[in-house]
Fold this sequence. Notes:
The structure holds two protein chains of two kinds.
Chain A: E1 4-7, E2 10-13, E3 18-25, E4 31-37, E5 44-50, E6 53-57, E7 64-70, E8 73-79, E9 87-94, E10 104-105, E11 109-113
Parallel strand pairs in A: 2-11
Antiparallel strand pairs in A: 1-3, 3-8, 4-5, 4-9, 5-6, 7-8, 9-10, 9-11
Chain B: E1 3-7, E2 10-14, E3 19-26, E4 29-38, E5 45-50, E6 56-59, E7 62-66, E8 70-75, E9 84-93, E10 97-100, E11 104-109
Parallel strand pairs in B: 2-11
Antiparallel strand pairs in B: 1-3, 3-8, 4-5, 4-9, 6-7, 7-8, 9-10, 9-11
Amino acid sequence: ETGVTQTPRHLVMGMTNKKSLKCEQHLGHNAMYWYKQSAKKPLELMFVYSLEERVENNSVPSRFSPECPNSSHLFLHLHTLQPEDSALYLCASSQDWQGVETQYFGPGTRLLVL
Amino acid sequence: EDQVTQSPEALRLQEGESSSLNCSYTVSGLRGLFWYRQDPGKGPEFLFTLYSAGEEKEKERLKATLTKKESFLHITAPKPEDSATYLCAVQASPGNQFYFGTGTSLTVIP
């Protein structure tokens, strides 16, 4: 595996379900990110982790809960989501958080909330 | 308010018909400007980083330029495989914030 991988690629869940999205980066980077991409909207930064410590939390509802057990893995735990949470969820990584660093993206998880 | 605006929203070109995509930004302190390509159902793929006004970068049929207010992505003699959405992002100070545009959807017709 190379680059940034995400699983699952597609997910359908009901509003009462609990699910988790997984991201793994194979680039040796220290920072990881979760973004939400909705149609006709700019990418919305949700969370940033640097060396496993959360450094950004952009007013994201508590039904989204991130976890970063090590610098290579990032999870997004989902519970009691709303239909408006349906979107493409993208994970990204960069060498560091503070510098002008290029972010490399995974393929995304297409989430549909029914 | 810091923001990034891309135009046009959509662009259809004949194969070989050169054109430019625009990314204008209003941020208090530019640290870097990034161009990405995104194919349907996939994550954004990195193309270029520009750091200061006057800088230019090229890759195959693509050339990115930067001024103090905007960036252009020039596409020379495009091919159908260049069809994709092109995203612009700005990293700004203070606070190391990232701002993305909504993208330009490019279709190149054979």
